[in-house]
Amino acid sequence: MPGEETDGDLAQRAAAGDRAAFATLAERHYDRVYALAWRWSGARVEAQDIAQDSMVKMATAMNGFRNDCAFATWAYRIAYTTAVDHIRARRRIVALEPARISALADGADSGTPENEMMGQELWRAVRALPDQQRDAVLLVYAQDLSHGEAAALMGCSEKTVSWHLHEARKRLRIILEAV
After folding, report:
1. Please, what are the domains in the chain?
2. CA angle, 120 as apex, 117 and 124 as ends, to 5°?
3. 63 φ/ψ angles, rounded to the nearest 5 degrees
């Protein structure tokens, strides 16, 4: 929109203590932060908690934003770290029912409520992967980030992200074929 302030401008004002500028940034980026939180947690209430914690962390860290990267990247990094910390704190592994695994392996259409449920089971299986594999899958496939963007968020190389994705696919294939 013409005349609309950029995230960088708003971030500078927010870092200087302008609460309205931060509120605008939070409003612009909340949906994306919530989407990341939901993919990591799989539960609405937990996702809301993670998203809110992320926003609080962003507000308290605004004076540390150096404008050397896009605000969205900086905010996403905080949300990613908050989600990972939250999930590690609860450390719950979700077991898959054999009938759901078989249905997922058969690859039915995704337009029915049953298949939507199967998709949710698949995401639960992804959340049960080892941390780095889970993070790589969620960032690349659920959040549509490139391997490079995922690597930057995870603090590793693109090759490492690719390796984690490869290992995750192998594990998921074993889970899905075990039934």
Report:
1. 1-91 (1.10.1740.10), 93-179 (1.10.10.10)
2. 140
3. -70, -10
Strands (E), 20-124: none
Task: Give me the long-range contacts of 99-107 (CB less than 8 A, separation at least 24).
Answer: 99/179, 101/125, 101/175, 101/176, 101/178, 101/179, 102/179, 104/176, 105/176, 105/177, 105/179
Q: What is the pLDDT of residue 169?
A: 84
Enter the DSSP assignment of 141.
I
Q: What's the pLDDT tens digit per position in 142-152?
A: 777 888 988 98
State the pTM of this model: 0.57
Cβ 28 vs Cβ 9: under 8 Å: no
Tokens of 53: 């914690």
AA letter at 106: D
- Rounded to 5°, angle at Cα 33 from 112 and 150: 90
**Nearest CA to 80 among 21, 131, 13, 25?**
131
